[in-house]
Each structure stands twice: as structure tokens, then as C-alpha cells.
Amino acid sequence: MTLLPTEKKPRTLLIAPDRSYRTGAFVLAAQKLGIELVVASFGEACLASRSGGLALNRKSQTDALDTISRAVAENPFAAILASDDETVGLAGVAAERNGLPGNTADAIKALTSKIHFRRLCQSNETQCPGFISLDSKNLDRGAPAGVHYPCVAKPAMLSASRGVIRCDNPGELSRALKRIHSLLYSEGKLGEDVVLVEDYIDGLEYAVDGLLKRGRLQVLAIFEKPGPMAGPFFEETIYLTPPRLSHKVTGQVIGALENLCRKLGICEGALHAELRINSSGVCFLEIAGRTVGGRCGRILEFQTGCSLEELVLANAARLPAAVGESTGSSGVMMIPVTQGGVLRRVEGISAARREPGIIDVEIDAREGQILVPWPEGCAYPGFIFARAGTVADVERALRAAHRCLNFVLAPQLPTTTALQ
What we know:
Elements: E1 11-16, H1 23-33, E2 36-42, E3 53-56, H2 61-74, E4 79-82, H3 85-97, H4 105-112, H5 114-123, E5 131-135, E6 151-155, E7 165-167, H6 170-186, E8 194-199, E9 204-213, E10 216-224, E11 238-241, H7 247-264, E12 269-278, E13 281-288, H8 298-304, H9 308-316, E14 329-334, E15 341-347, H10 349-353, E16 358-363, E17 370-371, E18 382-388, H11 391-404, E19 406-410
Parallel strand pairs: 1-2, 1-4, 2-3
Antiparallel strand pairs: 5-8, 6-7, 6-8, 9-10, 9-12, 11-14, 12-13, 14-18, 15-17, 15-19, 16-18
């Protein structure tokens, strides 16, 4: 959609980390929609669109909020939104402080903190895994009492399934906690938050992307994660849409998510939920105030005809968005890291692209980059995209293309400190 020449451009503030890969996509989407987009980011340099940008103080949320409020007073915004997990909390507080559409403080906590989400679910009698929380600085004391096995240990502050480990007994849990301790220490995050030890929930796993406006949920897609995700690690690999679910079960998933949003007071913005379905019904594992991560949002564009960023901006600025319906199926493979080492080259890319149904194969990893398997891994080396008539054909295409690829690695040699 585009605005008529006589219409005033909606003015929207996007709060983005200074290295967000999504900022450019939001700027392009704003230009296409006729939205005046202002980018607020951390650091000494602004990430500016044509209308300029705001530099925020990374070390002081109070200063950052004051900077945003001054900008609102000078020239009001129609909406404030976040580009990534890192800025969801700040964007939510800024919107609430400046009287713009947003969520309550409790809802913001549910969208930004795994521990608050669990506690709010329990207090609202919403099905979620039972859990205990541990101080991340005290993970070397062995398996805590009162744990039901199998269980899952996970750092509350990390995303993309990093540090998430299934444990079937106290010995495995003790080793997992030590491994999580080392991971958090290596990233300078030790002591910043808690580690959850929660009941393992059996069942097939799905994700839902949606947009909320005045409490009404628009589901953009339900993603199927094919195959059992039973651990011991939970690296996400394939997303398929639409899922192989009956209309009845699809309705139950949407109804359960709508009910969850009402109970938690989530009424505005982007939403990404992770859930499992088993004989007990729908159990929510995670919820976040953003859309699907990585470049996986491309498969939504295949299905709707609009980029994910266009849909998010149009929703925030209260603009209509023409969402088409595809009769086919789409999918993405986040290429897994099966072995660690130093990347030398990737073979078979052209062959993978020639597989029927494959739209593109994007390799982000470069020669010399260190690839790290999950649960410590932090970056996928690339993505494979496919479209076909059925979900089964999409899955087959993705797996066939992946089999064509060969990541040639050299061992990562230990480093030594030179004598002074």
C-alpha cells in the first residue's frame, strides 16, 4: 500500500540495537509504505534514516527514555516499536510513558523475561512447564532437589536455544549446569539473570507469529518444526508453513494464544510464541514481543506478499496492509552446525540451488570463521528457502538441498598466551 499525495506521513520511532541486521529492512519497508521512520540506536553514531536518528545512552535507561520523550515532545510519533529482543523492553516503556499504543508493565515483563512469563502463567492458571530458578553464579553446586526428570536447563537471558539442555537424571543436570556456567562466563553474562530448570514437555513443537492491535490478534503464520525435538539440545532447524494440523487443532492453538494474551495483558505489537501440543493440549514454552528471528521472516513474505517489516510497521502505524493468501507452502532451514571448527569453504551450493522447490541458498559464514555447534553455538552459517505445493514437498526440498552442502572445516587449535 502507498499513501495518497495529500495524506500526511505517519511518523514512527524504531528502537534498534546498533548492529541489528533488521534496521535496513525496516527502513525499506517504511519507504514503501510512506511512513516517516526515525531510528533510535545505541552508541556514538546514529543509525539514521532520511529523517535523522536518535543516539541513546546504552548505560542508562533513564537517559534513553528522556531522549525519546524530548523527541516525542518536539514532533510526536504515531508509534514506538522495537526491531529486536534487545530493545523490546525499552520500546514498551517508552510507548507507555508517552501515551502511545503499548502494553502494561506486567505484559512487557512477560514478553522480555522467561522467568516472569512462567510466573505470570502460573498465577493465571495457564498451562506451562513447572520450574525452579537458580542463581547463575551458583551452578556448580550440583543438581538441586525437587526436580522432576526429564527436565530442561536453560539460561533465562539467552535466545536461539543457546544453553538449552535436556537432562534425564541428576548427574546429567549437574554437568549441564556446569556447561551453562562456562557459557555465561565466556560471554560476561554470569550473574545477570537466572537459570531455569523446568519440566520437559513432550509433544510436537510449533511457533506462531502474530500482530496485536487494541487486543485483537492477527495470526500471520503457524510454523511447524518437523520431527521430534527431544534433545539433548534444541537447535532449531526447519520451519514449515502452513503446518500439518487439522482445522480443529489450528483453532485450538489460536484460541489458546488469544486467551494467553488476554490473561497477560498483551494487547499491542508483534508476537512470537513457542508451544508444544500433546494429549494434554497446548503448552506454551516461550513468548516474545517480536517476530520470528533470523531471515526466517522471508517465508512469511512468500505466503502473504508483504515483507514482515511492512506488516509490523503497518500494524504499529494503524495503516491497512493488503495481506494475500498463498495456496502453496513455504519453508526455511536454518543450516545446522553439526561439527565445530574453522571454516575453509562450502561446497555444493550450486547443486543445492538446483534442487526442485529451492528458492535460494544463502551462506553467511565466511572462510576463517569459527563454527560452534549448539548448545554453545550462536550463529547459523546460512539459510535455505523453499516453496512447493505441499508442506511435505517443501521439507523434502530443504533436506535434499542440505545434503548437497559440504562444510569443509579445519580443527580449531588451542591458543596460548605468549610469555612476557
